[in-house]
User: Fold this.
Amino acid sequence: MDIGVMPNATLLVQLVIFVIFMLILNNIYVKPYMDIIESRENLIRKNLSEAEKLRNEAKSYLGEATRILEEAKKEADAIIENSRKEAEQEARSIIEKAERETEEEIKKAVEEIRKSLEEEKKKLEKSVVDIAKTIVKKILREAA
Assistant:
């Protein structure tokens, strides 16, 4: 008993229809879908690389801003230090000038006091001489 298995032509037709169906599905649905996925992946890669580039650029700008800020701080400190030194020097100069002026005024006052004292001394001597002459005259009058 031989069961004869003869290939059926339907199987071959079904296989051809299935392959045609797969090609149609591939061309209509799968290929466009894969193209969209691929383009999105490329866009994502491009955006990621651009974001990385921008992040690196931002880091360099931040570094430069930090450097500029530090330089500005150093310059400000130097300016403040110079201003402080200049103010101290100016204060010393003003104090020295005031001391010199005060010393000159004191010298002038002492000189004026000496002159006044000498004048008063001369007046006193003259008065003493006049009083002595007057006393001598009175004594001579009384003795005479």
User: Anything to note?
Assistant: The two ends are 208 Å apart (CA to CA). Residues 11 and 17 are 10 Å apart (CA to CA).
